[in-house]
Write a structure and sequence with these properties.
Elements (H helix, E strand, L loop, with lengths): L1 E2 H5 L14 E2 L1 E3 L9 E4 L12 H6 L4 E4 L10 E4 L3 H12 L8 E6 L4 H14 L4 E4 L4 E3 L2 E3 L8 H13 L4 E5 L2 H5 L10 E4 L7 H4 L2 H13 L6 E5 L5 H5 L5 E6 L6 E9 L2 E10 L11 E10 L6 H14 L6 H15 L10 E4 L5 E5 L4 H11 L9 E7 L8 H11 L2 E6 L7 H9 L10 E3 L3 H10 L6 E5 L6 E4 L2 E4 L2 H7 L8
Parallel strand pairs: 3-4, 4-5, 5-6, 7-11, 7-12, 8-11, 12-13, 13-14, 14-15, 19-23, 20-21, 20-23, 21-22
Antiparallel strand pairs: 1-2, 8-9, 9-10, 15-16, 16-17, 18-19, 24-25
Helix pairs in contact: 3-5, 4-10, 10-11, 12-13, 13-14
């Protein structure tokens, strides 16, 4: 229970008004969860307007309403108005859970691809340094070794702050957190002072929500714009938007690169189905601000990690850089020791479930399940796999596109697959409320006639996977893209149990039918 006056004192976005005192027993933005004594927060959503649910909230017992437009309420109900209900709500949630973020060192990871893997690797590096670490991500959340379910890439503000409070109460010290563009646009993370932020890359995604690429990019940039001078900002300078993310940030700026030299660099020596062989180079000095670092160069070579795909080099490097910067300024000897420890710890990193997760099939064939669901991600995964195909084998790809989501990426995803694969099986992803065959038509029809003889369309995803295995000659790679770690398929509002990994495992003894 909280006093209303304590919750709203100095609340960002709140318009001045005389407010009578109330005892608040619950806080929610979901009218279905309102109970007697609740403070209900309403805003205009992407598809619905929360203001329309205010009468229902009052009927369920709400004693206070916070909204963005004036609304008539009974005399016994307190009405509050905000210029941004989402912003106010995030800060209310922070206060409801006693500002747990202040007890945690939180590093945010944003970008189109690689967020989940980078956050997962950062979590493991911290664990290796002796910290009790937490992870907030798309696949799952972790509090030390304890696995918790994940709902969204970045949870709703109430769930986010409840999770942070749980972390703090369990003795978690450091948190690696995926931060999505939609969460940033909706102020879900408002109130968190990030210790640092990492940028992975930027490509086509979520335009059903953001409408334009510029709006999508600028939403990502908000994470860096809001960093404090005590924070660090680490960006991928091999991405053309990498340096843009650092513009106007108050944080200390650092870079990483696989193609050139950054503060943190990785020289990739080889990449195959057994993993990456690489060297790590640290170059500190050019980014020195406020005496934080002395000039320092250090290199560790002859490293190997069981991570498949060249793009994983970026995720590994970003995580190593983030772990190093989280330690703050160190004397030269201590910094060198830390760099050496992190470099060797990087060799123990394991693939996140559903991120090029291997399933070994008969006849020397390998299935690989990956979450790639954007044109750039499909391109990068297949570019990484193409040179790994053994002599005599083929690269077979199973690919779908989600329903009721960004339609503009469907054809580019199919083109990327057709460009790199020997055979593509187009299939359902999560069709949701769309006709699967209509989605496949949007992927298939724009393709040039020259590649259509290498494209199959099979709406049933399990059948599509089995067919891909049957058509894969010995020593082939079969890439199943789009759903990755997901254990369901959403059709017409129902989530049915479904796992790409489980389907592949059931096909392990299916022979080549050629």
């Amino acid at each position: 229970m909280r006093r209303l006056s304590e919750l709203i004192e100095g609340l960002p976005g709140l318009l001045p008004a005389a407010v009578p005192e109330r005892e608040i027993t619950h806080l929610t933005a979901d009218s279905r969860q309102v109970r007697p004594g609740s403070l209900f927060v309403a805003w205009r959503g992407h598809t619905t307007d929360g203001h329309t649910f205010i009468p229902e909230a009052i009927e369920r017992g709400a004693v206070a309403i916070l909204a963005e437009v004036p609304v008539s309420v009974p005399d016994e109900v307190v009405f509050l108005q905000s210029t941004s209900s989402r912003l106010s709500y995030a800060h209310l949630c922070s206060r409801w859970f006693d500002q747990p973020q202040k007890r945690l060192h939180i590093v945010g990871i944003t970008g189109t691809n690689g967020k989940s893997s980078t956050a997962y690797y950062l979590y493991h590096l911290w664990q290796g340094l002796g910290y009790k670490a937490g992870l907030i991500g798309t696949v799952f959340c972790l509090a030390g070794p304890e696995k918790l379910p994940a709902t969204l890439t970045t949870p709703d503000s109430f769930e986010l702050y409840r999770l942070l409070r749980y972390f703090a109460d369990q003795g978690v010290e450091r948190v690696a957190m995926e931060v999505s563009s939609i969460a940033l646009d909706q102020h879900r993370t408002a109130g968190i002072t990030f210790a640092g932020a990492l940028f992975t890359n930027l490509s086509h995604d979520h335009l059903d929500y953001h409408k334009t690429f510029i709006a999508y990019r600028d939403a990502k940039k908000r994470l860096f714009d809001e960093l404090s001078p005590k924070s660090f900002a680490l960006t991928n300078i091999d991405d053309r938007n990498g340096l843009f993310m650092l513009q106007n940030t108050s944080a200390e700026r650092y870079t990483y690169s696989v193609e050139s030299l950054g503060t943190f660099s990785l020289r990739l020596e080889s990449s195959d189905l057994w993993g990456l062989s690489y060297s790590l180079l640290l170059e500190l000095g050019s980014e020195k601000r406020q005496g934080r670092w002395e000039r320092l160069q250090a290199e560790v070579s002859s490293l190997h990690a069981a991570l498949i795909g060249r793009f994983q080099a970026y995720n590994l490097l970003a995580a190593v850089g983030g772990a190093f910067l989280s330690e703050g300024p160190l004397p030269e000897k201590a910094a060198r020791e830390l760099w050496l420890k992190l470099a060797h710890r990087s060799t123990t990193l394991k693939t996140l479930p559903g991120r090029l997760e291997p399933v070994f099939l008969n006849q020397g064939r390998v299935g690989l399940v990956d979450y790639a669901h954007t044109p750039d991600a499909v391109e990068k995964v297949l570019e990484a796999l193409r040179p790994l195909v053994p002599n005599g084998g083929k690269l077979i790809v199973v690919l779908g596109a989600g329903g009721n989501r960004d339609r503009t990426k469907r054809a580019p995803m199919a083109r990327a697959a057709a460009q790199h694969a020997d055979l593509v099986v187009l299939t359902s992803d999560n069709p949701r409320y769309e006709d699967p065959m209509a989605i496949l038509a949007e992927m298939y029809d724009p393709l040039p006639a020259s590649v259509k003889n290498r494209i199959l369309r099979i709406a049933d995803r399990a059948e599509a996977i089995r067919t891909a295995v049957q058509l894969a000659p010995p020593h082939s790679l079969v890439a199943i893209l789009g759903k990755g770690h997901e254990t369901y398929q959403e059709i017409a509002g129902v989530k049915y149990p479904f796992s790409d990994v489980a389907i592949l495992q059931a096909c392990q003894e299916v022979p080549y039918a050629g």
